[in-house]
Design brief:
Blueprint: E1 9-12, E2 17-20, E3 25-30, E4 38-40, E5 51-56, E6 64-67, E7 74-79, E8 83-90, E9 99-118, H1 121-124, E10 129-133, E11 136-141, E12 144-151, E13 156-159, E14 162-170, E15 174-183, H2 194-210, H3 219-231, E16 233-234, E17 239-240, E18 263-264, H4 265-277, H5 281-294, E19 305-306, E20 317-318, E21 332-333, H6 344-358, H7 365-381, H8 400-419, H9 427-444, E22 446-447, E23 452-453, H10 469-472, H11 480-492, E24 494-495, E25 498-499, H12 506-512, E26 520-521, H13 522-534, H14 538-551, E27 561-563, E28 568-570, H15 576-589
Antiparallel strand pairs: 1-2, 2-3, 3-4, 3-5, 5-9, 6-7, 7-8, 8-9, 9-14, 9-15, 10-11, 11-12, 12-15, 13-14, 16-17, 18-19, 20-21, 22-23, 24-25, 26-27, 27-28
The structure holds the ligand OC[C@H]1O[C@H](O[C@H]2O[C@H](CO)[C@@H](O)[C@H](O)[C@H]2O)[C@H](O)[C@@H](O)[C@@H]1O.
The ligand OC[C@H]1O[C@H](O[C@H]2O[C@H](CO)[C@@H](O)[C@H](O)[C@H]2O)[C@H](O)[C@@H](O)[C@@H]1O binds next to α4.
């Protein structure tokens, strides 16, 4: 059975990522890209679906573990009766083939170690042929091959469905294992030196983290979140995935299990804003260029999400051979929300390009053309109902947040033109559009009787996304309607102080058309902290923020959701949305401008 979600740590090479449990088992890894089929899928089934455990024989969870400084190099230490041993796990940034490196180092005494490797290609479905060649164990099936070697060589043997290595490590000894994925039709991949690769990886991550401009009191948490966001970036294209996993459930045993290994425009723009606010212009530029390529074409064809290279077809299917995380079934790949109309996305993209421009990123003519096309599209379509930022699968509605973000698109376009009249655009028309949307949202989106902005026109349901209203500039933080909305969300949408997206229980299904319910949504909880700060309650904002920091796992990672009663993280992990929220709130508490 897989571990608790919060028991996993993340390692990655900016093209894919793996989850390492406290027991030394790597239970999730997709190769060669984030969205490729997993070769270790025990996370969503059992050990037979693929995993790689390397730990002292008979041991359980490690005694302690941590990332080595500001890096994605993970060190896990076991103290056993015979002595102490450290396993250092990382994925070097790759030249060609992806490598997973595990260096075992004796710290004291002598420790009996056991390695169990079960490679299962295609999400745990395919048992490969394993042979020995050239000092390697090579597993091959279909298009995939994986090569395992160790330095110095330790004996391995096949036992049933796995490759086992039993060896002893004494104080001062180091044994490095390297697992390399390669297309099966190609000759053996080039070998890396695992120790040199470790030095390079550390130096790269250190240098990257050192560029962070944040100097406030939450530096450790902010830097870890930024490292996590960076790890979710697919370096060859600049695309950013929402999370490296699929189908970690929003409810244990439930059906709310989605594939997040794609680039949502919403999540990516928010990631970009965080990176840009803290000095990472290169990533911002790479993503902006990715965006320009991905969305090229008719704005009516804009998708809410794309593949890592901008692919458009992401058909949602189920993997019936996987039992699901703690029996949360189905396990899905692809994502049906890809074809939804979500009007907020236009606002998020225009806002982000506006922030990039203001942040000093040299504008690209294409980027401005995209914004103009988006405005043309919104002028025609902003009055339509949509699926909203929560991607509901029930009937379309007039979501207040979607309309507010349509206003944001018009507002940022107007402001860009005002600042640079040499640009081409319909200043008067966009001003009128901005005015019209504002009037309608204030008329139809605010329920005076209820004393709050509601989720959609005509509904009495609340929605945590309305907490974003003061951050967008749609209304000032001291507007009585904003104050009332923040209070209503706090009163009615919280669970032990953490915020739900909307409704609860049956109300949940009524809103989104999916059975079951879910935990509190961490990004929304950060938004409440932001709203408290903006509306003059800084002590309460800080207190909530610090409670949220305490939800992070031992290595600083957050999933999408949190179940306060069970004290468990839920949903895909680690999730960009949650870490974006953390960075944004840290900046806001520090007096900096909005990062989301
Ligand atoms: O709630 C149903 C929807 O849940 C997922 O969407 C959520 O994740 C996205 C990626 O982080 C985020 O952009 C969105 O706001 C969230 O609601 C799922 O991907 C959808 O398919 C599903 O309909």
């Amino acid at each position: 059975m897989a571990a608790l979600i919060e028991d996993y740590a993340l390692i990655g090479d900016l093209q894919t990522a793996a989850l390492v449990g406290r027991d030394g088992s790597i239970d999730w890894l997709c190769l060669p890209r984030f969205d490729s089929p997993a070769c270790f899928a025990a996370l969503l089934g059992d050990e037979d679906n693929g995993h790689w455990r390397l730990a002292p024989a008979g041991a359980g969870a490690c005694t302690r573990r941590a990332y080595l400084e500001d890096s994605l190099v993970l060190e896990s230490v076991w103290e056993t009766a015979g002595g102490a041993v450290k396993v250092t796990d990382f994925m070097p940034q790759r030249d060609r083939a992806p490598d997973l490196v595990r260096i075992v180092e004796g710290l004291s005494g002598r420790v009996e170690m056991l390695g169990v490797l079960r490679l299962r290609f295609d999400y745990g479905a395919i048992v490969p042929w394993v042979r020995r060649t050239d000092g390697h164990r090579v597993a091959v099936a279909g298009p995939d091959s994986a090569w395992l070697r160790s330095e110095p060589e330790v004996p391995t043997r096949g036992e049933g469905p796995s490759t086992r290595s039993e060896f002893t490590v004494a104080a001062g000894e180091k044994i490095a294992f390297v697992l390399t994925w390669h297309p099966s039709h190609e000759p053996r991949p080039a070998l890396i030196d695992p120790h040199e690769a470790l030095d390079h990886s550390l130096a790269d991550w250190r240098a990257w983290a050192g560029r962070c401009r944040y100097r406030g009191p939450y530096r450790e948490a902010v830097v870890r979140s930024l490292l996590t966001l960076k790890a979710l970036t697919y370096a060859p294209t600049g695309g950013i995935v929402a999370a490296p996993t699929t189908s970690l459930p929003e409810e244990i045993g439930g059906v709310r299990n989605w594939d997040y290994r794609y680039c949502w425009l919403r999540d990516s723009t928010l990631t970009l804003n965080s990176l840009l606010a803290l000095g990472y212009e290169d990533e911002a530029r790479a993503w902006r260029d990715w965006l320009v390529r991905a969305v090229a074409g008719d704005p009516a064809d804009l998708q809410t999400m794309y593949g890592l290279a901008g692919e458009r077809r992401l058909p949602e299917t189920e993997l019936p051979w996987l039992a699901g995380y703690e029996r949360s079934y189905p396990v899905r790949t692809g994502n049906g929300a890809v074809s939804q109309l979500q009007l907020d996305v236009y606002g998020e993209v225009v806002d982000s390009l506006h922030a990039a421009r203001e942040g000093g990123l040299r504008a690209k003519p294409h980027a401005w053309n995209i914004q103009r096309c988006f405005l043309d599209f919104l002028r025609e379509h902003w009055r339509e109902p949509d699926a909203g930022l929560w991607e509901v699968r029930g009937p379309r509605r007039h979501f207040v947040h979607s309309k507010v973000m349509a206003w944001v698109a018009a507002d940022r376009a107007v402001r860009t033109l005002e600042a640079d009249p040499s640009l081409d655009g319909d200043l008067d028309g966009w001003r009128a559009l901005r005015e019209e949307i504002h009037r309608e949202v204030c008329e139809k989106g605010y329920d005076a009787g209820r004393g709050a902005f509601v989720q959609s026109y005509g509904s009495t349901e609340l929605d945590a996304a309305t907490l974003l209203i003061p951050r967008t500039g749609f209304l000032p933080p001291d507007d009585p309607r904003v104050l009332a909305t923040v209070d209503a969300v706090r009163r009615e949408l919280t669970d032990d102080g953490f915020v739900r997206r909307y409704g609860d229980g049956l109300a949940h299904t009524a809103v989104d058309g999916i059975s079951g319910t879910e935990g509190t949504f961490l990004a929304c909880s950060f938004w409440l902290a932001d709203a408290l700060q903006l509306t003059g309650r800084p002590k309460e904002a800080r207190a909530l923020f610090e409670r949220l920091l305490a939800v992070r796992n031992d290595v600083g990672l957050l999933a999408e959701e949190y179940a306060p009663a069970a004290g468990r993280q839920l949903g895909n992990f680690p999730q960009a949305f949650s870490h974006i929220g953390l960075v944004g709130t840290a900046l806001l508490l520090d007096g900096a401008g909005p990062a989301h």
